[in-house]
Amino acid sequence: MIRFASVVAAALLAAAPAAAQRVISTPNAPAAIGPYSQAIQAGPFLFLAGQIAIDPATNEVKRGTIEEETKLVLDNLKAVVEAAGMTMANIVSTTVFMADLNEFPRMNAVYATYFPTNPPARATVQVARLPRDVKIEIAAIAYRAP
């Protein structure tokens, strides 16, 4: 499923004219840790890079409970979405990567507060390891009708 979503995202980006692509960046979310953008807007779509529990004020990992890390990750995603002139309601799909799926119910309780109505489609997987050994990473796709 993740591979399919990546292929679809790549196809959509490839189909969009270069002029229609715009890098979205905000100091209200962590700076990219490598050669990638916080988000790319391609036409009506916004492709958000995965966010982890990094405090944007210090660019340091903020370790905590799964609830605390999930809140910070979603706040970081929200900051990037807002920098593109959208809201969390524009998010149509998320991919959640977790170090331990046993923590899913606790993560899900926090996640639900960010999407109280019409939550986006979601895939959630447990992975062997996440960047900087955090507990969670979330990537998203948002859409705004032209």
TrEMBL record:
GO cellular component, one term: cytosol
Keywords assigned by UniProt, alphabetized: Signal
One GO MF term attached to the UniProt entry: deaminase activity
PROSITE patterns: UPF0076
Signal peptide range in chain numbering: 1-20
UniProt similarity note: Belongs to the RutC family.
Name of this protein: RidA family protein
Protein source organism: Elioraea tepida
High-level lineage: Bacteria, Pseudomonadati, Pseudomonadota, Alphaproteobacteria, Acetobacterales
